[in-house]
Design goal:
single chain; 357 residues; alpha+beta; Hypothetical protein YwqG fold; six-stranded antiparallel beta sheet; 7 helices; 17% helix; YwqG-like_sf; DUF1963 domain-containing protein
Length: 357
Amino acid sequence: MGSVRTTPPRPVEVTEVFPELAPLARPALRLHPRPGSPSVRDSSVGGPLLWPAQEPWPHCEDAHLHVDSGFRRSPTEVRLERALQLRWRPDRPAPTLTPAEEALRERNAAWLAERLEAGSPRPADCPVPMLPVAQLFLRDIPLLQPPGRADLLQILWCPYEHEPDYKPATALFWRSAAEVGEVLATPPEPYEADYPGYVPEPCVLAPEAITEYPNSLELSPELQLMLADWSRWRASGADVDSSYAKHPQEFYSTHLGNAPGWKVGGWSPWGRTDPEPQHCAVCETQMIPLLTIASWEWDGDESRSWVPLEDQAAAAGSYFAGQAPSQPTRVEVGSTDNMQIYICPASPEHPHTDLIQ
């Protein structure tokens, strides 16, 4: 696990201003992924999986778009480019690969050349090995509600976009960590990814329990009207900047409702689309948020109040391209949006669904 991360107290205790919201509180766990070197025994984003050696690695067999995004690179190329970005400084010579990285680059180039021999099928026409997105142990993420004796959730995706929603296809696997014997040492990797943002950077986690409230779009019309009533905010004595006087509901949405970033549980981060309840394809139960896969842990000044105390100095400082402290996983989905994964609360083994929001 990573070091501790602490969300600052909310600028306003929202249920003191609007006690009507108290019944809508939900627990969530901010994962706070940060670059690191997780092992197969760690909860992680983009890290190695505790995958049984005797179990086939998941491949995506869906149809893949043949239109080259212009950004396609192998996962190894993406990681090496990022390593150079992290070392770049304007007052120093251009960084170069270390001997170990150069050897990796050469091995990767030979592998790519072998894959592209005459007569080989196009990379997107083959079953595509999926990439690890997250591995979550119940001991670290107690909000998980695994089926049976499972205590481990593994999430992977295909790094190609899929029609009709133009997003990676996801796969979920629940398992018991104690029942994994020999671990797969070298999982297969895809030939390429549509975008670098579909290659998660290995990150350790620092889970933190918080309480969330619904996105304002999910509130009843009556509650939305109350949030928009500036006189109600002022009468409560809440310390809200007068710049929000015309649209105080934006203060709620930005600082009080639900947290940005990677998280388990809580409420969905609607905004790109209006709320749309998801129902289980098997039993029609309304599904609940499982994991939010975020492009950013915080986004500029708007969500700066959510920056953990331990990251505020880095967030306030300057940085160069590819070094943003608010994008530790280097994941980008949609137009730097979120991917929300939903599961069935009646049976987590029922098919999940996901949306870009």
